[in-house]
Structures are given as structure tokens and as C-alpha cells.
Q: What sequence folds into this?
């Protein structure tokens, strides 16, 4: 019993040490209070609970599904390494926020094939480094676009690009080194407009689609009209459900129209 409690105490001390480091770095921190509460519950089995411990290891396996669920917190702690592997997909979703923090050896995000996309769909995207920032396009091109303005600033000198023109400013000299400098007529390039998803509201609604006999509409294409007038195309799933539609309050309505009916 004491060996199991000691293992819980060790896990808690690891979590608290990393929590302090994350706090100093202004990153999201772990919920160590829930771990404290669980340790108190399982110590001498003071309250109703299950404590499993094996000196040489524990394996939990099934040819089908394994689900771990709680109405409070789930904590996973290892003194050495934690590995999560999947031959297909790994999905992590959070109703509020996701925090990733590495204290010593950095962080790498690689995709051997396929694109890597990062979006802040309804807020800012901030990047900072204490030392150099390097961006390389090995076999392609680098394109930076903005709907309002692009500003480059270094040492007080700046270049500002907007629909009003190009503004170049410096407190010192401007040097142009080239074989030739040509002045030509005006020209503009139209950029492709990137459309991001709208803000997800606090209320969600989804439809299950059936006919008057109760037959489910499977893989049925539809158009949903949202409260702000936007129209979203979709298709029902194998159980007849549409995707979830989000609204800002519970009194707003979503209308559904089937395309092929």
C-alpha cells in the first residue's frame, strides 16, 4: 500500500515541478489540485476509491475499444517518457484551450507528407523568439499577404505596404544597389481571399433527419441557413445527423433545406 502511495506522491511532485516552470514561462499549468485530492482519497483508502499497483508493471489491452472518462480531471504522469502512437489519426480537442510546454530541449512539429496549417480563426497569431527567426521555402516561394497593411520595422527604419501605396522611412541613408532602376506604369496584384470559419457560439444544435415513416436520411446533401444569413452546405452522416451549428444565444434558429428533395 505504501509503495503505491509513494508512486502517487512522486507523480504529484513531478507535476508540481513542471507546473512551476510553466507558470514562470506564462504557459498553461496542470491541475495539481485534483491530483492532491485523489492522493488524499486513496491514502489508507480513507474514502471510496480503487488503487491499482504492480511492482513490475501493468498492461491494459483489448482488441476493441478502451475508454477512460471522468467528470473532473484526467492526469497522466511519467518520470521518464510518455508515448502515444496511432497508425491512423490522433485527435486532441478542447472546449477552452490547449497548452504545450517544453522546459529544456525544445519542441518539433514535423509532417513528412501533407501540409501543416496553423490558424487563429477569430483572434491574433503571435510568434516571438529571443534569438533569430528563420523562414525557408526550399523548393517554392514565400508569399506574405494582409488585407490592410504589411509593415517591416528594424532599428527605427521601416517599410509600410498598403492599398494607399508603399511608404519607406529611415532616419539615415537609403542605399540602392542594382544594375538598373526602372520606373514603369502603375500595377496591382489581386490576392486570393482566405476565408476562415466564423466564431463558434455558446449554443449548438444539430438535426437528425427522418421522413414521416421514420426512415433516416443517410448521406443526404443539405443547405443550412444560420441566424446571420450565412448558408452552409453539408451532408448527413450514416445515422442521419447533420453537423453541429453554433449560435450566440438559445433563441436563434437554424433552418435546414435538402438539396435533392
A:
Amino acid at each position: 500500500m505504501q509503495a503505491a502511495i509513494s508512486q502517487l506522491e512522486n507523480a504529484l511532485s513531478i507535476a508540481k515541478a513542471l507546473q512551476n516552470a510553466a507558470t514562470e514561462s506564462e504557459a498553461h499549468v496542470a491541475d495539481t489540485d485534483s491530483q492532491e485530492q485523489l492522493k488524499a482519497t486513496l491514502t489508507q483508502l480513507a474514502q471510496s476509491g480503487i488503487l491499482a499497483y504492480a511492482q513490475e508493471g501493468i498492461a491494459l489491452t483489448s482488441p476493441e475499444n478502451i475508454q477512460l472518462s471522468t467528470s473532473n480531471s484526467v492526469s497522466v504522469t511519467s518520470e521518464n517518457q510518455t508515448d502515444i502512437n496511432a497508425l491512423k489519426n490522433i485527435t486532441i480537442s478542447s472546449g477552452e484551450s490547449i497548452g504545450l510546454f517544453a522546459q529544456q530541449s525544445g519542441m518539433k512539429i514535423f509532417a513528412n507528407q501533407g501540409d501543416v496549417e496553423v490558424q487563429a480563426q477569430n483572434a491574433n497569431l503571435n510568434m516571438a523568439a529571443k534569438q533569430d527567426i528563420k523562414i525557408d521555402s526550399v523548393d517554392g516561394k514565400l508569399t506574405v499577404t494582409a488585407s490592410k497593411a504589411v509593415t517591416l520595422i528594424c532599428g527605427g527604419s521601416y517599410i509600410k505596404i498598403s492599398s494607399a501605396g508603399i511608404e519607406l522611412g529611415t532616419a539615415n541613408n537609403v542605399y540602392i544597389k542594382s544594375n538598373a532602376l526602372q520606373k514603369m506604369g502603375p500595377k496591382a496584384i489581386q490576392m486570393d481571399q482566405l476565408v476562415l470559419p466564423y466564431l463558434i457560439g455558446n449554443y449548438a444544435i444539430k438535426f437528425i433527419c427522418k421522413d414521416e415513416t421514420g426512415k433516416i436520411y443517410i448521406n443526404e446533401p443539405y443547405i443550412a441557413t444560420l441566424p446571420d444569413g450565412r448558408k452552409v452546405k453539408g451532408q448527413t452522416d450514416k445515422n442521419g445527423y447533420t453537423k453541429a451549428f453554433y449560435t450566440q444565444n438559445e433563441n436563434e434558429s437554424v433552418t435546414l433545406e435538402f438539396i435533392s428533395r
About this structure: The first strand starts at residue 149 and ends at 154. Residues 1-79 form one domain.
